[in-house]
Amino acid sequence: MDAHGFFFLFCCAATFLLAGAQRGFISIDCGLNDTATYINQLNNLTYVSDDGFIDSGMNGLIDPTSIGKGSNKVYFTVRFFPNYKRNCYQLPATVDTKYIVRATFLYGNYDGLDTPPSFDLHLGVNVWETVNLTDNNKPFWTELVVQAEARFLYVCLVNTGHGTPFISSLKLRPLPQNMYAPANSSLYLALKTFRRVDLGAKQPSWYPTDRLDRIWESNYDGYGTPYITSLPVTESANLMFGLPSVVMQTAVYSPDEIRVNWTGGVDDRFHLFLEFADVVPPTAGGSRTMKVQMNGEDWGDASIFYLHTNVLYSTTPLNNASEYSFSIRSANASDEGAVLNSFEIYKVVTFNGSATEEGDVMAVTAMKEYYQLKKNWIADPCLPFPWDGLTCDGSQTVGLDLSSSGLSGMISRHIFSLTKLKTLNLSTNNLHGSVPPFLLEMPYLVNIDLSSNNLSGPIPDLMRERVRSGKLTLRIEGNPHICLKDQCTQDQKSHAGKNVVSVISMVISLVLLVCLIFI
C-alpha cells in the first residue's frame, strides 16, 4: 500500500467534540442592510451584513416569486457589482489556520433581466471557480479548503463580460489544524469540494449535525442497500477527521461490491476520502477487511470495526485519468459484504504563489488610509490585474493615477516606497504644501502631473534642471501659489518694493495731515 502512496488510518473509539463550534464562524448575508443582524432559524447561526467586509457593490432584492415560502433567508438579498472588473471581500483569518470558505449564489432575477450571469470567482490572485448560472431559482454553492498564509483571505468576483457578478452569501469556517492535510499553503495547494456524500441518508445535513458546517449530500440507496443504527459511532479525537456521528450512523451494504465513480478533466487532480464503520453487528465478531481497487488496480485495504470509524484516503493526488472507478469489496465473501458510510472527493487547486511586491502593497494601502480613498482597493494591487488607478509591470507598481480623487492634505511620503514608479498623476485635487524633495530621489519617475491643486512654494532646482534636460515631464499649472525659483525671487522683490512705497506714502500722508492741523 505504501508503494502506491496511500495511507490507511484507523480511527478508534472516542467521540469527536469541538468546543465552541461556532467560535470563529463568519456568516455573511450579502446585500443585507448594514445595521441588520439575525439568527438563521435553519441552523441557529448568526448572520451579519457584508458592509464591513467590502467597499464596493450595491444591494439588491431577489424576485420573491423565485423562492418558496420558508426558504433560507440568505437568498432574499444579493450584492451586485456593476462597477470595476474585480470586487473583493476581505475576510479576517489567522495565519496557518485551515478554513472552509464557501460562497453561495441565487440569481432570483434580482435585476429584472431574467438572464443569469457568468463570472469568475477568485481567492486572492488565484482562480477558484467559474460561476455559470443557468437557473434563476436554483442556488449554487462552491467551497475551498484552504490554509491561510496571511491575516486576511480575499474572495473576489471578476467580471468576464457575461453579465454583472453578484453573490448571496459568504461563510468562513475554521478547521482543526491536522484535518485535510493536502490543503497546504506552503505547497500552494487548496482543495475544492467536488462531492461529499452521506450514504444511506434520506436528507442532506450540515451544522449543527456537522459541527464544522460541512454540507453532506444525501444518497439513500444509489450505492447499495441502506442500513441505519441509532447507536453512536465514534472517532478518535486525536485524528480529527471530525466525522459526524449522524453521518456515520447510516451506511450502504452490498453482497458483491460498492462502486464510487466520477469523471474529471485530463489535467484534473483529486483527493479521495472513503469513510467506513459497520452499523450492522458482524456475525463473526471482531473486525472485517475491505479491499479497494482503483480502475482495476489494488489501492488499499481497510479494517472495519463495529460502530468505530475508519478512513482510507489518498496522500498524493489522483491524476492521469479522466475516468475514476473505485471498487470496494469484502475480503471475506461469506460475511455481511461490502460497506461504505460516506465519501469525500476534492479537486486540487494549485495557487501560483505570485503577489505584488510587499513594499508596494504597504505603500498603496497606507495611501488609501491617509487620503481616506473611496476606491475599490482590496486584495492584491497588481495581480491578476491592477487596481483602478494603478499601472503595473508584473508584480511592481509603475504608475499611480489619483487624479480627481478628492485628495486633500499634503503629498504623501508613502509614494516614495513605490520604488519603480514611472508616472504620477495627482492632478485636480485639493493638495497643499510644497512639492516634496523626495520625488527627486525616485530614479524611475519621469512624468509628474500636479496641476489644478493648491500647492505653494518654489520648484526645487534639481527638478527644474531635469525638466529643462527633457528627463522629466512636469505639469504644475492651476496652482496659484506655486512658482519656479526665479519667479518666486522676482515676486518677493516686487512685493518688498510695493511695501516700501506703501510705507513712504503713509508717512507723507501723515505729515501733510499734521501740517494741516497746526497751520
Question: What can you tell me about this protein's structure?
Answer:
There is one protein chain. The chain has helices at residues 245-248, 358-371, 461-468, 485-518; strands at residues 6-10, 26-29, 37-39, 46-49, 58-61, 77-80, 86-92, 98-105, 118-123, 126-132, 140-147, 152-162, 166-167, 169-175, 189-199, 217-219, 225-228, 250-254, 258-263, 270-276, 288-294, 297-304, 310-314, 323-330, 338-340, 342-350, 390-393, 396-401, 408-409, 423-425, 430-433, 447-449, 454-458, 473-475, 481-483. A hairpin with a 2-residue loop joins β9 and β10. The longest helix has 34 residues, at 485-518. It contains four helices and 35 strands. It has four domains: 1-18 and 188-353, Jelly Rolls (Sandwich); 19-175, Jelly Rolls, CATH 2.60.120.430; 374-483, Ribonuclease Inhibitor (Leucine-rich repeat, LRR (right-handed beta-alpha superhelix), Alpha-Beta Horseshoe), CATH 3.80.10; 490-519. The strands form seven sheets. Strands 1, 2, 3, 4, 8, 11, 14, 15, 16, 20, 23 and 26 form a twelve-stranded mixed β-sheet that branches. The chain has a five-stranded mixed β-sheet with strand order 27-28-30-32-34, with no helix packed on it. Mean pLDDT is 88; it is low at 1-21, 490-504 and 511-515. Helices cover 12% and strands 36% of the residues. With 519 residues, the protein is mainly beta.
